[in-house]
Amino acid sequence: MKIIIALALLFVFCFPAFSQNNQNLAEKLGFDRNAKLLIIHADDMGLSQATNNAVIQAFQKGGITSGSIMVPCPWFSDIAEFAKNNTQFDIGIHLTLTSEWDSYFFGGVSPASAIPNLLNQKGYFYPSVEEFAKHANGAEVEKEIRAQIERALAFGIKPTHLDNHMGTILASPEYYQILLKMGHEYRLPVLIPADMIAGVSTQLLEMLSRDNVVVDHLFMLNQASPAKQWGEPYLKFIENMKPGLNEIIVHLAIDNDETRAIMVNHPDFGAEWRQHDLDFVLSPEFKKALNEYNIKLVTWRQIGEVQYPK
C-alpha cells in the first residue's frame, strides 16, 4: 500500500505534465488527452545475425516502432551500420551488463582492467542479475554504461533512448541513479517502467525528476504459451490497455542454426520463442487489434523531442 501511495504522490507532485491543468504526454504528441499510446519495442539488436535480420524485417514491415542495440555483442557493427544508414527507424541502446547464454559470451566495451568487478574469471559479464548485483559497484557500472554509449556514437548511431538488458540497473537505486544521469547528460529518454519500479523500491521512485517521462504500463512475456495461442497474452494486454504511455517488449530472431546454437538449453526467450514473437508482430491479427482498440503507436524519438526540445 505504501508503494501505491508513493507512486500516486509521485504523479501528482512530480509530473505536472499529467495534471489536469497542463498538457499531458498524449496531448504534447498531438493526440487526445486519453489516448492509449503504445511503443512496440524489440530488444537485443546486435546479439546475432538472425536477431538483426528479424528486427530489420519487423521495422520494415511495420511490426515494431522501436528497438535497441546491445553494444558489447558480436553482431553490433552489423546493426550499427544499419542504424547509421536508416535513421528513420527508432533505435536506442540496450545497455548490457550480463551475458546469460551457456556457450555464447560477451564482456564489456571498457578494458577488462577498468571494470574487473563486472567480469567473471573468464573475462565475461556474469550470467544473472543476482551475480551481477553481488559483484558490481557504481563506479564501474557508470564507466561501462558510458563506454557503451560512446561506442554507439562513434559508430555513427544517433540513439533515441536508453534501456537496460535483463533489468540489471534495477538491482540498486545507485545504479538507477547512474542511468538517469546518463539520460540527462546525453539528452536521451530512459525507459522508466512505473509499475515495475513501484514493485521494487520506493527509493527508485523518489529519484525521478519532473522532466522524466515514465512508461505507465510495460508488458513482456515471461512464460511461453503454446504456439497456436502465442499471441493471446499480447492481445489481452491490448484489449485491456489503459490511457497513457504503454510499451510491449518483444524478442525477435529467425529460428535457425545460429539462434539455436546460441540459445541452447534456453527454452525461455530461446529460438522458438523469438520466431513466435516475430511471426506475431507481423501478423494480421496484431494489426487488427491495434486498430480495433484505437491504439496510437509512438516512438522514443517522439518522446525525446518532448522531453528534450531543441
UniProtKB/TrEMBL annotation:
**Which metal ions or organic cofactors does this protein require, according to UniProt?**
Mg(2+)
Entry keyword annotation includes Transmembrane:
no
What the entry lists under PANTHER family is as follows: CARBOHYDRATE DEACETYLASE, YDJC DEACETYLASE FAMILY MEMBER
Q: What is this protein's record name?
A: Cellobiose phosphotransferase system YdjC-like protein
GO molecular function annotations of the record:
deacetylase activity; hydrolase activity; metal ion binding
Species, as recorded: Aquipluma nitroreducens
InterPro entries named among the record's database cross-references: Glyco_hydro/deAcase_b/a-brl, YdjC-like
A Pfam family the protein falls into? YdjC
Q: Give the record's keywords alphabetically.
A: Carbohydrate metabolism, Hydrolase, Magnesium, Metal-binding, Signal
Q: Out of the domains of life, which is the source?
A: Bacteria
Keyword Transferase present in the record's keywords: the answer is: no
The signal peptide stretch is: 1-19
Q: Which GO terms describe its biological process?
A: carbohydrate metabolic process
